Amino acid sequence: MHIDEALTKRRSARAFRPDPVSRELMEEILQMASKSPSGTNIQPWKIHVVAGEVRARLEREVLAHRETDPADSGAEFPRTGKRKEPYTSRMRTLGKAMYGLIGIPKGDKEAGWRQWGRNYRFFDAPVGLILTIDKDLDAMSFVDVGMFAMAIMLAAKARGLDTCAQGAWNNYWTVTRRVLNVPDEEYIIFGISLGYADDSHPVNTLVAEREPLESFATFHGF
Ligand SMILES: Cc1cc2nc3c(=O)[nH]c(=O)nc-3n(C[C@H](O)[C@H](O)[C@H](O)COP(=O)(O)O)c2cc1C
144-160: per-residue pLDDT in tens? Predict the structure, then answer.
């Protein structure tokens, strides 16, 4: 697959078929992703590849915790959570389109809560990825991990697989830390669902539009 085709065809999938993904295939994808660049080549990415019984346990324990302690949400690392324009509008546009496709009416908090909870089932994907980083690294290294994550998503796409990056996994990190034995010295940054998209599910017809080039690029000296 040409890189442009992978970039064009990659879209976040939020419903997956149960078909398994082999360890060999995951190793191949991660080998490819490890070719990502990083500042001074420190390669700060760390990843937990979760399937089978461990994945089921993680899902069970996070969802149980979420029901008993819904307020225990939020990242361990500093995040303001505040958004200003134009980001608020873009976020709302996405939410409206997504919940519209699933048939969740605006204001139905209960249904919204349940749908958001599907994040913690990895949207039924057979493989869940949890990315972590050493706490004493700075923002530049978070950039490196982002590049690594994008490489995973493109390498997956080139092999017929789909993904969804999930900031949702920086919530309930106390449970994820315990289940996956993530050392206290690391932050849980985000997760990725990985598997074969269920193309018959309406949520996967979502196309998140992009802003025109002029809105984000400033050219100098051409
Ligand atoms: C860092 C990051 C965190 C994200 N977190 C979530 C998430 O928690 N749940 C979710 O459904 N989608 C999540 N997404 C997916 C975005 O909503 C999606 O990438 C965006 O709407 C663009 O759509 P596309 O990926 O289909 O092109 C996340 C994406 C990124 C890059």
Answer: 999 999 999 999 999 99
